[in-house]
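Protocol step 6 of 9: fold each sequence in the batch and record its structure tokens directly after the sequence line. For illustration, a two-sequence batch is reproduced in full.

Sequence one:
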Amino acid sequence: MRVLVAGLGEKKEFGLRSLRDAGHFVGVIDLAHRIPVSLVDWWRAGDRFSVESMLAAARSADFTWDAVVCWEELSTDLAREVAERLGVPATRMPAGHFRHKGVMHARLRELGVPTPQLGVAHTLAECADLIDGRYPAVVKPTDYGGSGGVRIVRGPQELSEAFAFALEAARGGQVAVDRYVCGKEFSVESVTWAPGKTEVITVTEKHLSRPPYFAELGHVVPAVLPRAEREQLERAVVQVLDALGMEAGVSHAEFRLTPDGPLLMEVAGRPAGDQVPRLVSLATGWNLYLAELAAVVGSTVSPEVPAAQSAAIRFFNGDGRTPFRHPVDLEESLAAPFAGVLRELSYSEPEGTVTDAPRGIGGRNGHAVLAGSADEVREALRVLDDGRPIYQGAE
């Protein structure tokens, strides 16, 4: 099958390998520097924010495409329009419901699904009116992803800076205003084979930086939590996907687990970023990229035998003042607790570099991917973090 990825995103090598290893011909349209050309069969540079640019690039091939997918959050609606104009299948969901947080949460409110959103604002004054003195609140762009532009506001003196921070990332000039919700944060990875037929693949434990920015520091698959709470999350994601009209594709939904049950923060109609699909494959045997393609073309796939009981990724970040120290060297990687558990280790900054604390998806100094038993993975994470507790949003 000739599969076009119209909008690739960062660090999607696992997805490209998955499609090619399954025997598919893989093409990519994105910025040239983001395309690992050795992993694709065809590529063109294109503006991932322009339907006409992506369409012209797709039509420049001397063959026809069989399906279109998109792994870049900012391009998902555009990619579906490209597919429609090419006359080939793509993920099926209403435009805007999985991209624009204002549209998303308005739809949920209409159907009586609980949501933390207070509304959408174009100006600082509208932000203040929506909050109406109910602090803390959260201000975020309506049309961005990966925790970019998100900030907690604890009082009116912080609102102006938070609004400017969110607006800078908001392509459409709007910000969403939420009431702040306490509770541990999880994501739920699912595949919808057909309307009303969603299969929950796994629940992922999210590790965050402390407020005010909520940058994602890592993920663990599967999340360790009581069965009752897991089932609550599974029911909640099916309710959300049905309400938003997901018809076919893979989704990544982020919830906070509150005393009153799960509350949706946002949901994306694509596989998760941050190498979460790789973790899912290692720990569950499910390949989300192959599941997405199968759903798009009206087929199904099944999981393989998982390689490990648990898998995790930890990102190394700066704090703006401490020289960066590589947590693991080559000799240490061959000894406990990393021997047989450490699957990938990468540093983007040398030791001694001082980098700012992350305010979104940027500011990372490297990462480690781990896979093994649940105890082995937890111990390796503990050593990587020097025993420091990792914030999950419970406060």
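Sequence two, same batch, same settings:
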Amino acid sequence: MPLAQLPLDCDADVIADWFEFYVLCSEFSFGPLRSLQRAWDKRKNAENANPEGREEQDNSADEMFLEEIIQQFRERMDYLEGVYPFEFNETGEELRIKEHLSDGAILYLFCLFLSNFQKSEIFELDKFSYDLPNRVRDLFGACSTWAAAAYLNGAAVAFGFPRPDGSPFLVKLRECYAFFGEGQVRDTPLPGVSTNPKDEGIDVIAWSPRFDNAPGKPYVLGQVASGGNWPNKSVKEYFRPFHENWFSEIPASDPVPALFIPFCIPLTGEATLQQQLNILTKRYGHVHYRYTIPRLAQNGLELAANNGDLVIERVDEMPEIKEWVDELIIKLKGIAAARV
């Protein structure tokens, strides 16, 4: 296996990620859930030096360990519904990959890989080393664009640099806001602004058109962060300079900030997911993450396919994501088979 030892000391979401990779690596694409409990019991039996007075606490942890991990899988199934790529077998004793994967399921696996490819908790990095190409990170920007479109049931433009069409900043800005129907991009840049702007911190621009084409649209400005430094990123700080520096007439609609990440949400202390998102939303705006993006992005692709007049960019790049995911699964299985 190219996997590290089961990370028993990590949070439940990390252990669940590890087991999903275990299923992907296995020859027949399934994993017995009791193997998780056996690994826990084996470690407990090897650690016979517990301090006096901790036996009751440790026994409680033993009883709850497997159920906590299984609950992680149930939670993912509940949030993602049909796009979660894994399922329990008929007896509930195994986790397995579904036979037919939807676009959303492929996008979940895409986010899973992006979240973990450099984590020593998941992989033996001396046996599975993977340099993530910038192109793959860029494809997550495409995925985020489709998710933003579905979130607003509207249009979405991939504005982040580098833009696939190679368009300069001002050309793309004028094109985008001509579609948007609000605001006037400056004819001449203000003195002192960048002479070679890239995206001014804005990766995704999305809106929901009104039937009368009037101002007052739901309007999102989003940032895409596929790396582990995402807590340092918030699109809110870019709103004022973006609008005031580059528009002679600022759009009348108020923008909503959004953050798109492929990760699960890390929980602080005993916080629930909802409580953690309540905190994060105040800093980053609407947070879209691994439990929401695959489902939204699939809906965005369907929205684009069924609405030819709606601007939703980069939908032709889904096959490239699928090809990359398929190749990486084959690579992982090949490493696992060679080490049997």
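Proceed to step 7 once all outputs are recorded. Observation for sequence two: The CA atoms of residues 234 and 284 lie 5 Å apart.
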